[in-house]
Amino acid sequence: MQGNVVVEVIPAGERLELVPLEVGHAEEMADVLGDPALHAFIGGEPESLEELRARYVRWEGGSPDPGTLWCNWVIRSREEGRLVGTVQATVGGGRAEVAWVVGSPWQGRGYAAEAARALVGWLRERGVRTVVAHVHPEHAASAAVARAAGLVPTGELHDGEVRWESAAAAG
Prior knowledge:
With 171 residues, the protein is an alpha+beta fold. Helix content is 28%, strand content 33%. It has a single domain, classed as Gcn5-related N-acetyltransferase (GNAT) (Aminopeptidase). α3 links the parallel β5 (95-102) and β6 (130-135). α1 crosses α2 and α3 packs parallel to α4 (140-148). It is globular.
Protein backbone atom coordinates (compact mmCIF):
# COMPACT_ATOMS: atom_id res chain seq x y z
CA MET A 1 0.00 0.00 0.00
CA GLN A 2 1.12 3.51 -0.65
CA GLY A 3 -0.58 6.24 1.36
CA ASN A 4 -4.24 5.32 1.20
CA VAL A 5 -4.09 3.62 -2.22
CA VAL A 6 -3.29 -0.05 -2.94
CA VAL A 7 -0.31 -0.73 -5.20
CA GLU A 8 0.07 -4.52 -5.13
CA VAL A 9 -1.01 -7.21 -7.57
CA ILE A 10 -3.11 -9.99 -6.03
CA PRO A 11 -3.05 -13.45 -7.61
CA ALA A 12 -6.63 -14.71 -7.95
CA GLY A 13 -6.11 -18.36 -8.81
CA GLU A 14 -4.54 -19.61 -12.01
CA ARG A 15 -6.83 -17.69 -14.36
CA LEU A 16 -6.87 -14.17 -12.94
CA GLU A 17 -4.88 -11.49 -11.23
CA LEU A 18 -6.05 -8.30 -9.59
CA VAL A 19 -3.95 -5.37 -10.81
CA PRO A 20 -4.06 -2.00 -9.03
CA LEU A 21 -6.29 0.30 -11.06
CA GLU A 22 -4.56 3.12 -12.92
CA VAL A 23 -5.86 5.94 -15.06
CA GLY A 24 -4.21 4.22 -18.02
CA HIS A 25 -6.72 1.36 -17.71
CA ALA A 26 -9.65 3.64 -18.56
CA GLU A 27 -9.57 3.09 -22.32
CA GLU A 28 -9.71 -0.71 -22.09
CA MET A 29 -12.17 -0.59 -19.20
CA ALA A 30 -14.53 1.71 -21.12
CA ASP A 31 -14.99 -1.20 -23.55
CA VAL A 32 -15.30 -3.77 -20.74
CA LEU A 33 -17.91 -1.69 -18.88
CA GLY A 34 -19.65 -0.29 -21.96
CA ASP A 35 -22.62 -2.68 -22.05
CA PRO A 36 -25.83 -0.98 -20.80
CA ALA A 37 -26.98 -4.41 -19.49
CA LEU A 38 -24.38 -4.05 -16.69
CA HIS A 39 -26.59 -1.28 -15.27
CA ALA A 40 -29.81 -3.32 -15.12
CA PHE A 41 -29.61 -3.63 -11.33
CA ILE A 42 -27.62 -0.54 -10.37
CA GLY A 43 -29.22 1.99 -12.70
CA GLY A 44 -27.55 4.63 -14.79
CA GLU A 45 -25.67 4.03 -17.98
CA PRO A 46 -22.08 3.31 -19.02
CA GLU A 47 -19.64 6.14 -18.48
CA SER A 48 -17.86 7.71 -21.43
CA LEU A 49 -14.10 7.29 -21.67
CA GLU A 50 -13.66 10.84 -20.34
CA GLU A 51 -15.97 10.20 -17.37
CA LEU A 52 -14.27 6.92 -16.55
CA ARG A 53 -10.83 8.52 -16.81
CA ALA A 54 -11.91 11.31 -14.43
CA ARG A 55 -13.23 8.76 -11.94
CA TYR A 56 -9.99 6.78 -12.10
CA VAL A 57 -8.01 9.99 -11.49
CA ARG A 58 -10.06 10.53 -8.29
CA TRP A 59 -9.58 6.94 -7.21
CA GLU A 60 -5.83 7.03 -7.88
CA GLY A 61 -5.64 10.08 -5.62
CA GLY A 62 -6.99 8.04 -2.71
CA SER A 63 -9.61 8.79 -0.14
CA PRO A 64 -9.77 12.31 1.26
CA ASP A 65 -10.37 10.67 4.67
CA PRO A 66 -6.99 9.63 6.14
CA GLY A 67 -8.73 6.81 8.06
CA THR A 68 -10.14 5.27 4.88
CA LEU A 69 -8.26 3.20 2.30
CA TRP A 70 -9.57 2.97 -1.26
CA CYS A 71 -8.65 -0.34 -2.86
CA ASN A 72 -9.41 -0.57 -6.58
CA TRP A 73 -8.20 -3.26 -8.94
CA VAL A 74 -8.87 -4.27 -12.50
CA ILE A 75 -9.34 -7.99 -13.09
CA ARG A 76 -6.94 -9.34 -15.70
CA SER A 77 -7.57 -12.66 -17.42
CA ARG A 78 -4.17 -14.29 -17.74
CA GLU A 79 -5.45 -16.58 -20.49
CA GLU A 80 -6.77 -13.74 -22.65
CA GLY A 81 -4.18 -11.17 -21.57
CA ARG A 82 -6.86 -8.52 -21.14
CA LEU A 83 -8.94 -6.77 -18.52
CA VAL A 84 -12.38 -8.26 -17.80
CA GLY A 85 -13.73 -6.30 -14.81
CA THR A 86 -13.02 -4.62 -11.49
CA VAL A 87 -13.14 -5.27 -7.75
CA GLN A 88 -12.98 -2.66 -5.07
CA ALA A 89 -13.00 -2.23 -1.32
CA THR A 90 -13.37 0.80 0.89
CA VAL A 91 -11.57 -0.05 4.12
CA GLY A 92 -11.55 1.63 7.51
CA GLY A 93 -11.81 0.64 11.14
CA GLY A 94 -11.40 -3.09 10.54
CA ARG A 95 -14.33 -3.08 8.09
CA ALA A 96 -14.55 -3.16 4.29
CA GLU A 97 -17.34 -2.52 1.80
CA VAL A 98 -16.67 -4.48 -1.37
CA ALA A 99 -18.04 -4.50 -4.91
CA TRP A 100 -17.31 -6.23 -8.19
CA VAL A 101 -18.27 -6.05 -11.85
CA VAL A 102 -17.29 -8.29 -14.75
CA GLY A 103 -17.94 -7.26 -18.34
CA SER A 104 -20.80 -9.04 -20.12
CA PRO A 105 -18.64 -11.13 -22.49
CA TRP A 106 -16.84 -12.72 -19.51
CA GLN A 107 -19.81 -13.38 -17.24
CA GLY A 108 -20.75 -16.94 -16.39
CA ARG A 109 -17.12 -18.12 -16.19
CA GLY A 110 -16.69 -17.74 -12.43
CA TYR A 111 -14.38 -14.72 -12.79
CA ALA A 112 -16.32 -12.52 -10.37
CA ALA A 113 -16.40 -15.25 -7.71
CA GLU A 114 -12.66 -15.92 -8.06
CA ALA A 115 -11.83 -12.23 -7.88
CA ALA A 116 -14.14 -11.60 -4.91
CA ARG A 117 -12.67 -14.57 -2.99
CA ALA A 118 -9.16 -13.26 -3.64
CA LEU A 119 -10.18 -9.77 -2.53
CA VAL A 120 -11.79 -10.99 0.70
CA GLY A 121 -8.77 -13.20 1.43
CA TRP A 122 -6.44 -10.24 0.90
CA LEU A 123 -8.56 -8.11 3.24
CA ARG A 124 -8.60 -10.83 5.93
CA GLU A 125 -4.80 -11.14 5.75
CA ARG A 126 -4.65 -7.43 6.57
CA GLY A 127 -6.87 -7.66 9.64
CA VAL A 128 -10.24 -6.70 8.19
CA ARG A 129 -12.85 -8.32 10.43
CA THR A 130 -16.10 -7.37 8.70
CA VAL A 131 -16.68 -7.48 4.96
CA VAL A 132 -19.92 -6.06 3.55
CA ALA A 133 -21.45 -6.02 0.07
CA HIS A 134 -24.79 -4.68 -1.16
CA VAL A 135 -26.62 -6.78 -3.77
CA HIS A 136 -29.87 -6.08 -5.59
CA PRO A 137 -32.44 -8.62 -4.32
CA GLU A 138 -33.13 -9.87 -7.88
CA HIS A 139 -29.49 -10.17 -8.95
CA ALA A 140 -28.95 -13.91 -8.47
CA ALA A 141 -25.50 -13.94 -10.10
CA SER A 142 -24.17 -11.23 -7.77
CA ALA A 143 -25.71 -13.01 -4.77
CA ALA A 144 -23.84 -16.16 -5.84
CA VAL A 145 -20.61 -14.16 -5.98
CA ALA A 146 -21.21 -12.78 -2.48
CA ARG A 147 -21.90 -16.30 -1.19
CA ALA A 148 -18.74 -17.64 -2.89
CA ALA A 149 -16.75 -14.88 -1.16
CA GLY A 150 -18.01 -16.08 2.24
CA LEU A 151 -20.73 -13.49 2.77
CA VAL A 152 -24.32 -14.17 3.89
CA PRO A 153 -27.43 -12.04 3.45
CA THR A 154 -28.42 -10.16 6.60
CA GLY A 155 -32.00 -9.38 5.58
CA GLU A 156 -31.29 -5.66 5.91
CA LEU A 157 -32.01 -3.40 2.95
CA HIS A 158 -29.90 -0.35 2.09
CA ASP A 159 -31.05 1.79 -0.85
CA GLY A 160 -33.08 -1.17 -2.11
CA GLU A 161 -30.16 -3.61 -1.94
CA VAL A 162 -29.65 -6.51 0.46
CA ARG A 163 -26.72 -6.14 2.84
CA TRP A 164 -24.44 -9.17 2.73
CA GLU A 165 -21.82 -9.55 5.44
CA SER A 166 -18.93 -11.80 6.35
CA ALA A 167 -20.34 -14.92 8.02
CA ALA A 168 -18.22 -14.45 11.14
CA ALA A 169 -19.68 -10.98 11.76
CA ALA A 170 -23.22 -11.81 10.67
CA GLY A 171 -23.60 -14.93 12.79
